[in-house]
Design a protein that fits this description.
This protein has 333 residues and is of the alpha+beta class. The protein folds into 2 domains: 90 residues, Aspartate Aminotransferase, domain 1, CATH 3.90.1150; 174 residues, Winged helix-like DNA-binding domain superfamily/Winged helix DNA-binding domain (Arc Repressor Mutant, subunit A). Helix content is 38%, strand content 12%. The chain contains 11 helices and 13 strands. Strand 7 and strand 8 form a beta hairpin. The longest helix has 17 residues. The radius of gyration is 22 Å and the shape is globular. The relative contact order is 0.10. The chain binds zinc ion (2 copies). One zinc ion (ZN) binds next to loops.
Protein backbone atom coordinates (compact mmCIF):
# COMPACT_ATOMS: atom_id res chain seq x y z
CA UNK A 1 0.00 0.00 0.00
CA UNK A 2 1.33 3.41 -0.85
CA UNK A 3 0.86 6.42 1.36
CA UNK A 4 0.17 9.62 -0.51
CA UNK A 5 1.67 12.50 1.34
CA UNK A 6 0.50 16.05 0.77
CA UNK A 7 2.67 19.15 0.99
CA UNK A 8 2.17 19.29 4.77
CA UNK A 9 3.37 15.74 5.29
CA UNK A 10 -0.20 14.60 5.96
CA UNK A 11 -0.74 11.13 4.55
CA UNK A 12 -3.06 8.12 4.61
CA UNK A 13 -1.64 6.96 7.92
CA UNK A 14 -2.73 10.26 9.46
CA UNK A 15 -6.15 9.91 7.84
CA UNK A 16 -6.51 6.36 9.18
CA UNK A 17 -5.61 7.50 12.69
CA UNK A 18 -8.03 10.42 12.56
CA UNK A 19 -10.82 8.15 11.36
CA UNK A 20 -10.19 5.73 14.22
CA UNK A 21 -10.15 8.64 16.65
CA UNK A 22 -13.37 10.21 15.33
CA UNK A 23 -15.13 6.86 15.59
CA UNK A 24 -14.34 6.70 19.30
CA UNK A 25 -14.50 10.32 20.37
CA UNK A 26 -11.82 9.76 22.99
CA UNK A 27 -8.73 7.60 23.42
CA UNK A 28 -5.99 6.85 25.92
CA UNK A 29 -2.37 6.08 25.03
CA UNK A 30 -3.06 2.40 25.79
CA UNK A 31 -6.01 2.42 23.38
CA UNK A 32 -4.08 4.33 20.71
CA UNK A 33 -1.11 1.94 20.69
CA UNK A 34 -2.71 -1.02 18.84
CA UNK A 35 -4.38 1.42 16.41
CA UNK A 36 -1.07 3.08 15.55
CA UNK A 37 0.72 -0.29 15.49
CA UNK A 38 -1.74 -1.53 12.85
CA UNK A 39 -1.22 1.64 10.81
CA UNK A 40 2.59 1.40 11.08
CA UNK A 41 2.48 -2.28 10.11
CA UNK A 42 0.78 -1.39 6.82
CA UNK A 43 2.92 1.67 6.28
CA UNK A 44 6.22 -0.12 6.81
CA UNK A 45 5.20 -3.43 5.31
CA UNK A 46 6.31 -5.32 8.41
CA UNK A 47 4.56 -5.99 11.71
CA UNK A 48 4.85 -3.34 14.41
CA UNK A 49 3.95 -4.33 17.97
CA UNK A 50 1.74 -2.14 20.10
CA UNK A 51 4.54 -1.95 22.71
CA UNK A 52 6.80 -0.34 20.11
CA UNK A 53 4.47 2.65 19.70
CA UNK A 54 5.75 5.56 21.79
CA UNK A 55 4.04 8.57 23.34
CA UNK A 56 5.97 10.70 20.83
CA UNK A 57 4.35 8.74 17.99
CA UNK A 58 0.94 9.47 19.44
CA UNK A 59 1.81 13.13 20.02
CA UNK A 60 2.85 13.58 16.38
CA UNK A 61 -0.34 11.91 15.07
CA UNK A 62 -2.48 14.04 17.39
CA UNK A 63 -0.69 17.19 16.22
CA UNK A 64 -1.24 16.26 12.55
CA UNK A 65 -4.89 15.42 13.25
CA UNK A 66 -5.38 18.77 14.98
CA UNK A 67 -4.04 20.63 11.95
CA UNK A 68 -6.48 18.71 9.76
CA UNK A 69 -9.57 19.25 11.90
CA UNK A 70 -9.05 22.83 13.06
CA UNK A 71 -10.93 24.31 10.03
CA UNK A 72 -13.98 22.44 11.38
CA UNK A 73 -13.66 24.04 14.84
CA UNK A 74 -12.57 20.73 16.31
CA UNK A 75 -9.53 20.00 18.41
CA UNK A 76 -8.16 16.95 20.20
CA UNK A 77 -7.34 18.02 23.76
CA UNK A 78 -6.10 15.96 26.66
CA UNK A 79 -6.64 15.78 30.37
CA UNK A 80 -5.47 13.45 33.12
CA UNK A 81 -8.09 11.08 34.47
CA UNK A 82 -8.72 12.26 38.02
CA UNK A 83 -8.76 8.79 39.49
CA UNK A 84 -8.64 5.19 38.44
CA UNK A 85 -11.51 4.24 40.71
CA UNK A 86 -14.30 4.64 38.17
CA UNK A 87 -12.45 2.85 35.42
CA UNK A 88 -14.13 -0.25 34.08
CA UNK A 89 -12.13 -3.24 35.30
CA UNK A 90 -9.99 -0.83 37.29
CA UNK A 91 -10.86 -2.60 40.50
CA UNK A 92 -8.41 -5.17 41.75
CA UNK A 93 -11.22 -7.35 43.09
CA UNK A 94 -10.26 -6.85 46.72
CA UNK A 95 -12.39 -3.80 47.13
CA UNK A 96 -9.36 -1.58 47.35
CA UNK A 97 -8.68 0.92 44.65
CA UNK A 98 -5.08 1.73 44.25
CA UNK A 99 -4.19 5.13 42.93
CA UNK A 100 -1.99 4.32 40.01
CA UNK A 101 -0.18 6.65 37.65
CA UNK A 102 -2.80 8.92 36.17
CA UNK A 103 -3.94 8.12 32.69
CA UNK A 104 -4.08 10.79 30.01
CA UNK A 105 -7.31 10.90 28.05
CA UNK A 106 -7.46 12.50 24.61
CA UNK A 107 -10.85 13.71 23.46
CA UNK A 108 -12.35 15.47 20.50
CA UNK A 109 -13.55 18.89 21.60
CA UNK A 110 -15.68 21.30 19.65
CA UNK A 111 -13.96 24.66 20.07
CA UNK A 112 -16.94 26.89 19.26
CA UNK A 113 -20.00 25.24 20.79
CA UNK A 114 -20.46 23.49 24.10
CA UNK A 115 -21.34 19.84 24.45
CA UNK A 116 -24.98 20.57 25.25
CA UNK A 117 -25.37 22.32 21.93
CA UNK A 118 -23.77 19.38 20.15
CA UNK A 119 -26.10 16.93 21.87
CA UNK A 120 -28.93 18.75 20.12
CA UNK A 121 -28.10 16.89 16.93
CA UNK A 122 -28.65 13.52 18.64
CA UNK A 123 -31.20 14.17 21.37
CA UNK A 124 -34.62 15.81 21.40
CA UNK A 125 -35.20 19.11 23.20
CA UNK A 126 -36.98 17.31 26.05
CA UNK A 127 -34.11 14.85 26.36
CA UNK A 128 -31.59 17.68 26.52
CA UNK A 129 -33.72 19.41 29.15
CA UNK A 130 -33.52 16.14 31.12
CA UNK A 131 -29.71 16.03 30.71
CA UNK A 132 -29.59 19.62 31.98
CA UNK A 133 -31.62 18.58 35.05
CA UNK A 134 -29.13 15.75 35.66
CA UNK A 135 -26.22 18.22 35.39
CA UNK A 136 -28.00 20.62 37.77
CA UNK A 137 -28.39 17.72 40.23
CA UNK A 138 -24.69 16.86 39.94
CA UNK A 139 -23.23 20.33 40.15
CA UNK A 140 -25.83 22.19 42.21
CA UNK A 141 -28.14 19.98 44.29
CA UNK A 142 -25.46 17.39 45.09
CA UNK A 143 -22.59 19.84 45.26
CA UNK A 144 -23.03 21.81 48.44
CA UNK A 145 -20.88 23.09 51.26
CA UNK A 146 -21.87 19.96 53.21
CA UNK A 147 -21.25 17.43 50.46
CA UNK A 148 -19.42 17.98 47.20
CA UNK A 149 -20.45 14.69 45.65
CA UNK A 150 -21.06 15.84 42.05
CA UNK A 151 -22.72 12.51 41.23
CA UNK A 152 -26.25 11.18 40.86
CA UNK A 153 -27.57 7.69 41.44
CA UNK A 154 -29.70 5.91 38.86
CA UNK A 155 -32.73 6.35 41.10
CA UNK A 156 -32.09 10.09 41.43
CA UNK A 157 -31.72 10.36 37.65
CA UNK A 158 -35.08 8.64 37.18
CA UNK A 159 -36.69 11.11 39.57
CA UNK A 160 -35.41 13.84 37.23
CA UNK A 161 -37.30 12.34 34.28
CA UNK A 162 -40.21 14.47 35.42
CA UNK A 163 -39.91 18.11 34.39
CA UNK A 164 -40.84 20.63 37.05
CA UNK A 165 -44.02 22.44 36.04
CA UNK A 166 -43.26 25.62 34.16
CA UNK A 167 -39.62 24.67 33.51
CA UNK A 168 -38.27 25.84 30.20
CA UNK A 169 -36.61 23.60 27.69
CA UNK A 170 -35.05 24.57 24.40
CA UNK A 171 -37.69 26.67 22.65
CA UNK A 172 -40.64 26.08 24.98
CA UNK A 173 -41.82 24.36 28.12
CA UNK A 174 -39.89 21.18 28.87
CA UNK A 175 -41.98 18.02 28.93
CA UNK A 176 -41.35 15.10 31.28
CA UNK A 177 -39.72 12.03 29.81
CA UNK A 178 -41.17 8.56 30.28
CA UNK A 179 -38.98 6.65 32.73
CA UNK A 180 -37.87 4.21 30.02
CA UNK A 181 -36.72 7.06 27.78
CA UNK A 182 -34.80 8.71 30.64
CA UNK A 183 -33.17 5.37 31.33
CA UNK A 184 -32.11 4.92 27.73
CA UNK A 185 -30.71 8.49 27.57
CA UNK A 186 -28.58 7.76 30.66
CA UNK A 187 -27.35 4.51 29.11
CA UNK A 188 -26.59 6.19 25.80
CA UNK A 189 -24.63 8.96 27.55
CA UNK A 190 -22.52 6.29 29.24
CA UNK A 191 -22.05 4.38 25.97
CA UNK A 192 -21.02 7.56 24.17
CA UNK A 193 -18.49 8.39 26.86
CA UNK A 194 -20.15 11.47 28.40
CA UNK A 195 -21.11 9.90 31.71
CA UNK A 196 -19.37 7.20 33.71
CA UNK A 197 -21.13 4.82 36.05
CA UNK A 198 -19.13 3.66 39.04
CA UNK A 199 -19.11 0.23 40.61
CA UNK A 200 -21.19 1.64 43.47
CA UNK A 201 -23.80 2.89 41.00
CA UNK A 202 -23.05 6.61 40.84
CA UNK A 203 -23.08 8.56 37.59
CA UNK A 204 -20.44 11.24 37.07
CA UNK A 205 -19.06 13.25 34.18
CA UNK A 206 -16.32 11.48 32.18
CA UNK A 207 -12.93 13.09 31.51
CA UNK A 208 -14.12 13.69 27.96
CA UNK A 209 -17.25 15.51 29.15
CA UNK A 210 -15.19 17.58 31.59
CA UNK A 211 -12.87 18.62 28.75
CA UNK A 212 -15.85 19.71 26.69
CA UNK A 213 -17.93 21.23 29.46
CA UNK A 214 -15.33 22.94 31.66
CA UNK A 215 -16.13 26.44 30.39
CA UNK A 216 -19.86 25.83 30.39
CA UNK A 217 -19.80 24.44 33.95
CA UNK A 218 -17.93 27.48 35.26
CA UNK A 219 -20.23 29.87 33.40
CA UNK A 220 -23.36 28.03 34.55
CA UNK A 221 -22.63 27.18 38.17
CA UNK A 222 -20.05 29.69 39.38
CA UNK A 223 -20.85 33.19 40.50
CA UNK A 224 -18.63 35.53 38.53
CA UNK A 225 -20.23 38.63 40.05
CA UNK A 226 -18.96 37.88 43.51
CA UNK A 227 -15.44 36.48 43.38
CA UNK A 228 -15.41 36.06 47.15
CA UNK A 229 -18.47 33.80 47.07
CA UNK A 230 -17.77 30.07 47.37
CA UNK A 231 -17.69 28.59 43.86
CA UNK A 232 -19.43 25.38 42.86
CA UNK A 233 -16.86 24.40 40.25
CA UNK A 234 -13.40 24.18 41.81
CA UNK A 235 -9.89 23.58 40.57
CA UNK A 236 -6.99 21.50 41.83
CA UNK A 237 -4.35 23.72 43.43
CA UNK A 238 -1.57 21.56 41.97
CA UNK A 239 -2.50 20.90 38.33
CA UNK A 240 -5.08 23.71 37.97
CA UNK A 241 -7.46 21.37 36.18
CA UNK A 242 -11.11 21.07 37.19
CA UNK A 243 -11.71 18.81 40.21
CA UNK A 244 -14.78 16.62 40.60
CA UNK A 245 -13.00 13.71 42.30
CA UNK A 246 -10.31 14.26 44.92
CA UNK A 247 -9.61 15.67 48.37
CA UNK A 248 -10.69 18.82 50.12
CA UNK A 249 -9.44 20.99 52.94
CA UNK A 250 -10.82 20.17 56.39
CA UNK A 251 -12.34 23.64 56.53
CA UNK A 252 -15.51 23.59 54.47
CA UNK A 253 -15.26 27.28 53.69
CA UNK A 254 -11.75 26.95 52.27
CA UNK A 255 -11.36 26.49 48.53
CA UNK A 256 -8.26 24.23 48.86
CA UNK A 257 -8.72 21.11 46.67
CA UNK A 258 -6.24 18.53 45.37
CA UNK A 259 -6.60 15.48 43.12
CA UNK A 260 -5.58 12.22 44.78
CA UNK A 261 -2.86 11.81 42.19
CA UNK A 262 -1.61 15.37 42.68
CA UNK A 263 -1.36 15.18 46.49
CA UNK A 264 1.92 13.31 46.84
CA UNK A 265 4.01 15.37 44.42
CA UNK A 266 2.46 18.59 45.63
CA UNK A 267 3.31 17.98 49.28
CA UNK A 268 6.77 16.72 48.38
CA UNK A 269 7.43 20.00 46.59
CA UNK A 270 5.86 22.06 49.40
CA UNK A 271 7.73 20.05 52.06
CA UNK A 272 4.63 20.26 54.28
CA UNK A 273 1.22 18.63 54.18
CA UNK A 274 -0.67 21.87 54.35
CA UNK A 275 -3.73 23.14 52.56
CA UNK A 276 -2.55 25.07 49.50
CA UNK A 277 -5.08 27.82 50.28
CA UNK A 278 -5.34 28.28 54.07
CA UNK A 279 -2.18 26.39 55.22
CA UNK A 280 -4.11 24.29 57.74
CA UNK A 281 -2.89 20.68 58.12
CA UNK A 282 -4.26 18.59 55.22
CA UNK A 283 -6.68 15.92 56.49
CA UNK A 284 -6.34 13.45 53.57
CA UNK A 285 -9.66 11.80 54.41
CA UNK A 286 -12.05 14.57 53.37
CA UNK A 287 -13.27 14.01 49.86
CA UNK A 288 -15.02 15.52 46.92
CA UNK A 289 -16.76 13.23 44.45
CA UNK A 290 -18.50 9.96 45.16
CA UNK A 291 -16.48 9.35 48.34
CA UNK A 292 -18.09 12.43 49.93
CA UNK A 293 -21.10 10.10 50.09
CA UNK A 294 -19.59 6.64 50.44
CA UNK A 295 -17.33 7.56 53.36
CA UNK A 296 -20.23 9.09 55.29
CA UNK A 297 -21.48 7.39 58.43
CA UNK A 298 -25.03 7.41 57.08
CA UNK A 299 -24.08 5.64 53.85
CA UNK A 300 -22.10 3.01 55.74
CA UNK A 301 -25.03 2.39 58.08
CA UNK A 302 -27.42 2.15 55.16
CA UNK A 303 -25.15 -0.41 53.53
CA UNK A 304 -24.94 -2.48 56.69
CA UNK A 305 -28.72 -2.47 56.96
CA UNK A 306 -29.25 -3.41 53.34
CA UNK A 307 -26.66 -6.22 53.50
CA UNK A 308 -28.42 -7.62 56.55
CA UNK A 309 -31.89 -7.55 55.08
CA UNK A 310 -30.86 -8.50 51.59
CA UNK A 311 -30.23 -12.24 51.81
CA UNK A 312 -28.75 -13.08 48.46
CA UNK A 313 -29.64 -12.77 44.82
CA UNK A 314 -29.25 -9.12 43.92
CA UNK A 315 -25.53 -8.67 44.19
CA UNK A 316 -25.36 -5.34 42.47
CA UNK A 317 -24.47 -2.61 44.90
CA UNK A 318 -27.20 -0.07 45.20
CA UNK A 319 -26.74 3.34 46.69
CA UNK A 320 -29.16 3.70 49.55
CA UNK A 321 -31.32 6.57 50.61
CA UNK A 322 -28.30 7.91 52.44
CA UNK A 323 -26.73 8.61 49.07
CA UNK A 324 -28.20 12.06 48.94
CA UNK A 325 -27.26 13.06 52.45
CA UNK A 326 -23.96 14.68 53.25
CA UNK A 327 -21.14 13.17 55.23
CA UNK A 328 -21.35 13.50 58.95
CA UNK A 329 -18.59 15.56 60.36
CA UNK A 330 -20.23 18.44 62.05
CA UNK A 331 -17.83 17.90 64.90
CA UNK A 332 -15.05 19.54 62.95
CA UNK A 333 -16.95 22.78 62.48
ZN1 LIG B 1 -4.65 18.03 40.19
ZN1 LIG C 1 -7.75 25.17 53.43
Amino acid sequence: MSFDTDENGYNDSNRAFLQAFLARGSMTFAEARPVLAAIFSVQEGQPTQAEDVTEDDLASYIAAANTAISPFDLEIRSTLRQTTSTRPNGDDGNGTQEIRAAERVYALVNTTSDALTQLASIYSADEIAFVKRVLDAMFDTHNTRRSEAMVVTGIQAMQLAKAASGSQGVGGAAQSLPMSQAESVMKQLVDEGWFEKSRKGFYSLSPRALLELRGWLVATYNDDEDEEAPQKIKFCAACRDIITVGQRCGNRDCSGRLHDMCVRNFFRAQKAEQCPACKAPWPGDKFVGERAITTSEQYQQGKRRSTNTQQQGNREERPTAAASTPDQDDAEE
